[in-house]
Specification:
Helix content is about 50%, strand content about 20%. The protein is α/β, with parallel strands linked by helices. The protein has a 5-stranded parallel β-sheet with strand order 2-1-3-4-5, with helices on both faces. It starts with a strand and ends with a helix.
Length: about 120
C-alpha cells in the first residue's frame, strides 16, 4: 500500500493514476497530520509526500514518521527544487526526491527502485 500525502486533489489524483500503471494500491491524505493517522492505521509500504501543506508540513511529517518507523521508504514530491530543502528532507529521513510537475515513467521508476530496496 502506498500512502500519498498532498494538499492538492489534482496532484493526489495524478500520482494515483501514475501508480495504477503498476497496479499499486494507494491511500490518500491531504496533509501530514492526516497522513500520520493513516500511517498508524494501515500497512504502508511506501510514502509519497509533498513538503508545503497546511496543518503539518512534509518535513515535520517525515520526522514524525521516522519516530514510528525507520524503514518505510519516503519519496518527496514537491515544487521545491532548492538544495537546502532537499538536504533538510534527506536529513529528516526522506529516501528520494522528485520535482513537480513529474513524468509518470520517472515517478514509476523511483517508486519501483524504492520498493525493491
Amino acid at each position: 500500500m502506498i500512502l500519498i500525502v498532498d494538499d492538492s486533489n489534482f496532484m493526489r489524483d495524478a500520482v494515483n493514476l501514475a501508480l495504477s500503471i503498476i497496479d499499486a494500491n494507494s491511500v490518500m491524505a491531504t496533509n501530514g497530520q492526516e497522513g500520520l493517522a493513516v500511517f498508524q492505521s494501515e500497512k504502508i509500504d511506501l510514502i509519497i509526500t509533498d513538503i508545503n501543506m497546511p496543518e503539518m508540513d512534509g518535513l515535520t511529517f517525515i520526522k514524525e514518521i521516522r519516530k514510528l518507523n525507520k524503514e518505510v521508504p519516503i519519496l518527496v514530491l514537491t515544487t521545491e527544487s532548492e538544495q537546502g530543502i532537499q538536504k533538510e528532507a534527506s536529513e529528516a529521513g526522506a529516501n528520494g526526491w522528485i520535482v513537480k510537475p513529474f513524468k509518470g515513467p520517472d515517478l514509476i521508476k523511483i517508486v519501483k527502485d524504492l520498493l525493491d530496496d
